[in-house]
Protein 1
Amino acid sequence: MSFQSYLDYIETRTGRSPAELHAEARQQGLADDTGLAPGVKAGAIIDWLKADHDLGHGHAMTIVAWIKGKRS
């Protein structure tokens, strides 16, 4: 699967775009405008996405990559 395929699935599954999930992560203090918030590890975001959005590990990692700046 391509990175874009993962993003498309995530949006279909959650009803939220990667940008919206990034905004939600910022609201929760897990991320900032430049990536992960200081002191936050990827595992914290993965745990949040699994618990609140029912994503699997690979799809949650895709959002972590998005938050860190990956776009393709």
Protein 2
Amino acid sequence: MNGPILQLLVLAGIAIFLILRLRSVLGTRDGFEKPTLESPAERRGPRPDLEVIEGGPDRDITDHVPEKSISAKALAEMKRADPSFSVGEFLHGARGAYEMILMAFEHGDLASIKPFLSDDVYAAFAEAVEEREREGLQIEAKFEGLNELALDEAEYDAETGEGEVTVRFVSEMIWAVRDRAGDIIEGSLTERRRQKNLWTFARTMTSADPNWQLVATGE
């Protein structure tokens, strides 16, 4: 075999190696396709808390509810149904959702939060906003911070795959109500008001949709 042919074979071998290497790193795509993003759980690798569900306490659960409680068992079932579910990450998301939903309600902007509300909760919020508008009332509100966030209870329906998590929130707000004349008839723009809420979020754990919905509110 002469020199030029040998060089071509070597170069061809290197080219094939590089192509296979790039395919293993970048994957293959057909047409125009959005890049697949790893979830936070995938980036972190296998979660230790899932490995101890069968053999011992899961700190992701027991940090928030008593071990062997009904809520702890429900949360464990949610994790089995959806291995990407993390109680800690859920509560972090609930913190942001609480402020977003609460302030949107106070300002009467329900369109922006409709996807995060069940039909019943949306209807109740809409009725309250419409009543304020009929009476000519305007709300001025500013979120001042969250003092307390705690998981109150959790339930899981094995037949439907739906998980429900109830969270207790204690926050502080600047809040006042003005009448048609613009006079403040309730609240204050200089004093903070403590707000207590008990909200229940629900999601079908086997669904590809990762979003939770607010399905019940209380104090």
Protein 3
Amino acid sequence: MAITITTYAVLIVILRGAGKRSLSKLNIFDLVVTVALGSTLATIMLSKDVTFAEGALAFAVLCGLQWSVAWLSLRSAWFKRMIRSEPRMLFDNGRFLDRAMSDERILRQEIDAEIRNHGFGDRERIAAVILETDGTFSVIAKENATTCSAMEGVKSDRGDCRQNSEPTH
């Protein structure tokens, strides 16, 4: 019991030092680190074969690697492209973007489900559905897409959002 409490406390201290990003899901690497931290915590708490010191070192190494990847991706464009995916538009002003959906392995039914989950019953009210870098979907209503300023950097098979959306006044 004491080892579990101590391990938990050490993990919190290491995570506080590593920053908020250590438990985020901004990209696949962040998700892998989060899962690995949970697995390491469970192993330390349940296995007598892993010492507290080994577990604490594993926590520190995982957080250090995550910090290093984040640091490198901020400073190197090629590394950032290697580590992070781009958000991808899958639905644009009433049209499914079949090539993008195929590339991302997303079905029309999944997009319709996301549209419904965001409180819409009509595709015609949707300016865009975007698959974000963390695997979540953003659904943007036409009335909220007048300038498309938040769409910068979204990979689209159709071009610039402002060319495709119909602003409402």
Protein 4
Amino acid sequence: MIDVEGDASSEYGEFPLKRHLGMDVGGDGAGTAHLTIGPEHLNPNGVVHGAVLFALVDTAMGKATMNAIEAGRFCASIEVSLRFVRPAAAGDLTTVATVVKRGRTVVHLDARVVGDDDRLIATAAGTFAIIDL
């Protein structure tokens, strides 16, 4: 299993969906998002709902982007493509997102979602905007 110790959620910020899903967010460099699957994460077929996987990926990518940009700047998703490899129904899910390329205004990322048995659940590619508020 991928280690997600050292939750940096206080640096990344709190938000209601993170609390609702029970995500832990962290990572120095790469962004990580982790959750333990519960009944609230399942679709009517008894496997993790695709939207839950998307939330993990989007959150991990956001954390990785925030790690790659200067303090005082922010980010927003432009595009995320998620590929489902196999279903998950129990245990833990961990997403690790890495920066492929950081440009002046855009960051390109890849991510992988694995179960607690290290089997691949999903892969993703994304693009995030760097924003000055």
